[in-house]
Structures are given as structure tokens and as C-alpha cells.
Amino acid sequence: MEEICNFEDVKRMLDNLLRESEPFWNAFYTDRQKNIPFFENKPDENLVSYYEQGVIKPGKVLELGCGPGRNAIYLTEKGFSVNAVDLSEESLKWALERANEQGVHINFIQKNIFDLNVQESEYDFIYDSGCFHHIAPHRRMDYIHLVKKSLKPNGYFAINCFIEGGPLGGSSISDWEVYRIKSLQGGLGFTDIKLQRIFRDFACIEVRKMRSVNVNESVFGVDGLLTAIFQFRC
Q1: Fold of 7-29+40-231
Q2: Which residues contact 31 (CB under 8 A, 6 or more apart)?
Q3: Distance from C-alpha of 206 to C-alpha of 228, rounded to nearest angstrom
Q4: Where are the domains of the chain?
Q5: Strand 123-129 versus strand 151-162 pairing type
Q6: Quick check: 161 and 195 in contact, CB under 8 A?
Q7: What are the record keywords, sorted (predicted)?
Q8: How far apart are alpha carbons 220 and 197 in whole angstroms?
């Protein structure tokens, strides 16, 4: 019914106006030969640095928007227990194939992240590599609530997202403009100051540009992304 009776109805209406749906992402992941940088089966360089520096240690992980599973596989190989979520059935088929090829077990979940049933203080680490910049402004409070509810006290949350006006896109439109034009323009862009303002309830450990890596390196890194890691101190 197209009837608004509460705030959830408002959010669902705005979702339908803006959100790129499951069919879009299934089509996106169907052609695995496309020249998409993050289709490479390599973990993010910043994620590897968090582990190698001892910032994150083996524990329970929730990955939001896992795509073809490259970061979930890396974390599992390092001894983490991973629940990896994505909206796209096609991306998870690919991720499961990769996991099986590498002999690791990951709990892949096909679901909208806002429909997840998470336990309070369940996770030591939450990772998002490319999901947040596709989240519409009206869903940010739900996103933050999900992270805060899911993380254990002193747990870590890390994110990769488009740089505002960067080479990968990163629209610089205002939050209000999103609704005037009814579009995220392929993904919203952020600055370090804006990320720290949005996630002000967390202690900021680091915000920086992703390191662009050589093709021969065993990690993924490109220009145009911001990386950030926060701690949930409560």
C-alpha cells in the first residue's frame, strides 16, 4: 500500500525512489570479465595494514557489501570468523566459488543490510569496502545504528568509500540535492572531515587516501577511495 503511517513507511518510499535494486547488482556481477578494479581477488591494502599492524586481531567479523568475497577470504585465512553480507545473489555465487577454491569457510548471507537480524555486541570488527557510498542519506542513521548495535565495546569499524569528486566518481552533491534529482549519481563522495562528522560517535583512528598499488602487489589499492578506521569506545 502506498500509504505513509510512520517513519519506516517514509524510508521505504525513499528507498524505492533512490536505491539501486537487487536486479541491478545481479546484472553488474554477471559479467565477471568486465574491467572493474575490485573484481580482482586481492584484499584491500588498508585492511591488510590493519591486520599487519595489530590493530585488528582474529575474532568475529561482519562484512557489509562483500561483493565477490575477496576481503572475507583474506580475513578467514588469517583466522577470523566472517559473516559476509551482500544484496546480490550473483556476487555471492562468485564469492562462494572463490572460497571453495581456496578451501575456506565463510558464512555468506544474501540480504539487504537493513534487514539483518544481529545480536547486540556480536562482532569484534565490521568492515565495509564500497557499500556506504551507495547508502542514501535517509538511511545513514540506520547504518550507524547497525554498526553501533553490532560492535562489541572497543571493537573496530572500517570503511572504504569514494572521494568527493575523485577519479572513480564520488558525487559532490549535497544530501538535500539527492532528493531533488532523485539520484545518488552512481555513488556519493566524501571527505575526511565529512566522514569524521558522520561517525562522530566513534573514535577516529585513521582517515587517509587508499594507496595506489602496483599490479604485481598482492593487495588491492586504487586512486579515488578514502579509507577510515574507527573504534567504538563506550
Answers
A1: Rossmann fold (3.40.50)
A2: none
A3: 5
A4: 7-29+40-231
A5: parallel
A6: yes
A7: Methyltransferase, Transferase
A8: 27
